[in-house]
Amino acid sequence: MFRQLFRPYDKKAKYDEKWYCIFNLMKKYKRQNGNCSVPYRYVENGINLGQWAGYQRMLKRKKSLLKHREDALRKIDFPWYVDNPKAANAGKDALWKRMFNLMKKYKSENGNCNVPTNHVENGRRLGRWASRQRFFKNANSLRKDREYALQEIGFQWESYRRNALPHMPCEIKWYGWLNLLKKYKSLHGNCEVPFTHVENGRKLGLWASRQRALKNTNSLQKNREDALQEIGFQWEGSSCNAPANISYEMKWNGWLNLLKKYKSVHGNCEVPFNHFEDGRNLGLWASRQRALKKANLLRKDREDDLKKIGFQWERDRNSTPWEDWFNLLNSYKNTHGHCNVPRKHIENGRKLGLWLKNQRAQQRRNALLEGREYLLNKLGVVWI
Predict the structure, then answer these.
(1) 261 Cβ partners below 8 Å, 6+ apart?
(2) All residues at 6 or more sequence positions from 352 whose CB lies less than 8 Å from its CB, including other chains
(3) Most CB contacts within 10 A, which of 184, 223, 244, 345?
(4) Rounded to an integer, what distance in angstroms lies between the CA atom of residue 241 and that of residue 192?
(5) Taking each helix axis from N to C terminus, what angle separates 352-364 and 321-336, rounded to the nearest 10 degrees?
């Protein structure tokens, strides 16, 4: 960009005009900060003034900077070399002080220094700057004078999201959830909220599960843990105890009856993942039971009920997905008398028409296994 804007030997006035516009920004910077040591990434009025200054130094080194431009820069004491630490750090100090002043302004308006991470003040990312100061402090890299200056204005070294102060927005939301849990307890006599329970339009069961997960990973704040303990919150959910909610238990038994029905028809409990029974995704439910068993989260009585009907905890790897699709196609033929499945046809919740289209495409490319092609031919599939 700068090679186009500031070509060294271009005599046209329009390029000089652009150059002097940015030069005026440099003079403005000097009036505000007392020097021309602009940080490399410093931006003024949408112009990267630090990068522009670096480009002028490069032209000077290559003896390509126009004489009148060099003279203009020399008059305002423009530093041609920034290897001097004092000169290099002067601009950074000025930028830090400017951000510090923005922080003081934020405190005077809001009463605290808890700047949200994405907050922008006067076009500056004050929230990110505050986060960097905390990072430098934790890494013992923050200069002592800066640390003292921030402490004097009441800067919090822990982010407001991690504090346990009741007046913070995040904390207010949490106590709102706690009040919903108290309301639930007053109605039901316990805090055993079903996972899918919704209170006042909010997923209270999901929230309760999250609190247990945070407790198990030692991530739950102490004041929150104590507040839940006071109202008799159970740290082990209903999925780990004896049936505590009759309606929830009835739902599970309903799924079990659907599985028994599937077994009576098919002779096994190997439900395809996308299989629907009576409009309900039985395959997904069966997969969830296997996942709960693997994570040692499935209740013992439910595990025993599934064992009684011969539920397989590991899917039978001998029955490949392709054979499942073939069986669906065979079922379609038995019903309709042919294998001409419409492209958008869905059989038992699975896109059988699309699958058959893919088999034809593989056959045209000679990519279909010989054994599979033989089975499809025997079934009466028309390839064209």
Answers:
(1) 277
(2) 325, 328, 329, 332, 341, 345, 346
(3) 184
(4) 10
(5) 110
